Amino acid sequence: MASGSGAGLDLGGSSRHNRSDVWQYFKKDGSRNVICTLCKGKFAYHGGTSNLRDHLQRSQSTVYTRDSGQPKIDSIMKVQKCSPARAKILDNLIVGLTVHDLRPTRMVEGRGFQELMEYCEPGYTVPSRKHISKLMFDRYTSGKALLTDKLQSDAFSLSLTTDIWTSSSTEAYISLTCHFLTSQWEYVDCVLATRSFPDHHTGENISSTIKEVLESYEIADRTVSSIVRDQGSNMRRATDLLQTEKGWAGVNCSAHILQLCISDGFKNNTSIDRALGAARKLVGHFHHSTLATAELYKQQSQMNMNQQKLKIDCTTRWNSTLYMIQRLVANRWPVSAVLSDTTITKRQDCTLDLTAHQWVLLEELAKLLEPLEVATVFFCTERKVSISCILPIMHNVFTSMDSEEGDSASIIAFKTAVRESIMRRWSLDGIEPDSPLVLAAALDPRFKSLKFLTDDLKQSVREELLQRKDADCGNPTFQCVAVKEKAPSETPPAKKKKTALDILLGDDNDSEGSENDTELEEFLLEKSLPRNSDVMVWWNMNEHRFPNLAKLAKVYLGIPATSASSERLFSKAGIITAKHRNCLKAKNVEAIVFLNKNSKFLNQ
């Protein structure tokens, strides 16, 4: 229908022509003719509109009536059929809704959704559940092809993370994510698979599944550098098999090891164990008593405190124990006031209050655990945290566990146990110069000074970098990470003996070295970056200055510090496979998780 702007056309210069309603449907064609905008018919015009009005009443009666001179409401509200192009857009938007918001495809069959679409787009026919599933799989197939091309064209070296999880319907899934640095030093993490894993969770089956997933993406063996996994014996077995067969280094999840170290501190510590047990029982009382909780809020308000519910911990997340302690200690007096009120608390429950010694012990424990919690959160939540941060952080954590004057016997025992566990699990007393954790720190402009190592070990690390930098790794880089086994006949290079002048004057740094030696020395002489600097930005700006070291940096700095990215998939998968969707097929779960987690990457 023509718009009302047609009435503003100049048809002879007189404004009276604009007063007639028929000019909404005609436009001037020369000085003596007009054209109907509805049927494109040409009519004579001699200053009057009678013939024009007769045409509208005779041929366009559905639009124009003589009585009103305005369009009929029925014609305006008439349902227009949705064009195929627009219907396709709407179909894809519905697919996006199911993927991004994790909605079931059966949503399109719901009465409320159909009424909404009928109101918003009356001429649109809502597609069937089967059609939406087909479109989703088409998007999954094209997205996987796009990711395959991206990995082959822009991934210099890949690092993987993996984990296993069981859904509410007791169906096991294995996840696999990959991480790499692009040619522009942009950190990319994406999901490769979330597959059903009905087989026994043995190392052999895990390694076979990982190889199948990588083959589906046509990923060359030599492109993979490492696999980050937890300390499970089956996961360790799988990465050991892959390292032997493919040369892929197995890297421990730093968050999982830290969890084990802190758990070791809690073990065999009677005082702490009893204090935590009493705290859990006390918090449990408030969680099960609505009356006690209501009175707790009342006491908090009277003491000018924020109303806070007490927290209970989870045994598999040590930091939840810290949060429980912090919340309980902060609300010590409101809690004690509720327990002492016999009108609220039963007589047998009044003894739930902690002893003065236990309150003091929990306060000391909370202060001790806070830096460990910062390390855990840093490892798990920072998107660009690579393994280069692990050893510097854990060295400081190890130092913070030194006993201090005034520490109670329980705190000293906890610190000692954690120190011993850190030393054992991270092998701080036997760090190898070819460890990926050490080499990553050496290539990080923030930690390249390697303050946590002895001078002799620093020199060994530099020699290891030179050896790997000189090696022809090319684009395939697994050889740069895997621990190399020396041939039986191979003898280590003889160390240069120091002369008397070397002892008196120090090492001769002015002697002429190779070009690669010079590159490494220039890198080491660079001023270290502040800790809050973006390492990837620095390497992107300085890659041309250190081209050989940059190749190694793309390998090691692209390895994540934890396998948290795989674990986070299970929170998504848990929503997808909730009780009301526990019959969802495994292939649907994989497609939805893939599209949901890779949405930003696929939409670029």
Briefly characterize the structure.
The protein is an alpha/beta fold. 50% of the residues lie in helices and 8% in strands.
Mean pLDDT rating: 83
- List segments where confidence is low: pLDDT < 50 over at least 5 consecutive residues: 1-17, 472-496, 498-514
Radius of gyration over C-alpha positions, nearest whole angstrom: 35 Å
Count of DSSP H/I helices:
24
What are its keywords?
604 residues, five-stranded mixed beta sheet, 24 helices, extended
Task: Describe the protein in words.
- This protein folds into four domains: 4-76, no CATH class; 81-253 and 584-604, Nucleotidyltransferase, domain 5 (2-Layer Sandwich); 260-384 and 399-423, no CATH class; 431-486 and 515-556, no CATH class.
- It is extended.
- It is 50% helix and 8% strand.
- It is built from 24 helices and eight strands.
- The longest helix has 26 residues, at 129-154.
- With 604 residues, it is an alpha/beta fold.
- The strands form two sheets. It has a five-stranded mixed β-sheet with strand order 6-5-4-7-8, with helices on both faces. Strands 1-2-3 form a three-stranded antiparallel β-sheet, with no helix packed on it.
- The protein has helices at 50-59, 73-76, 84-100, 111-120, 129-154, 203-216, 233-246, 254-266, 270-288, 290-302, 318-330, 332-340, 356-381, 390-400, 409-425, 436-442, 455-470, 500-505, 515-525, 535-542, 547-556, 564-576, 586-597, 599-602, and strands at residues 26-28, 33-36, 42-44, 158-166, 172-181, 187-196, 224-229, 249-252.
- The model is unreliable at 1-17, 472-496 and 498-514 (pLDDT under 50).
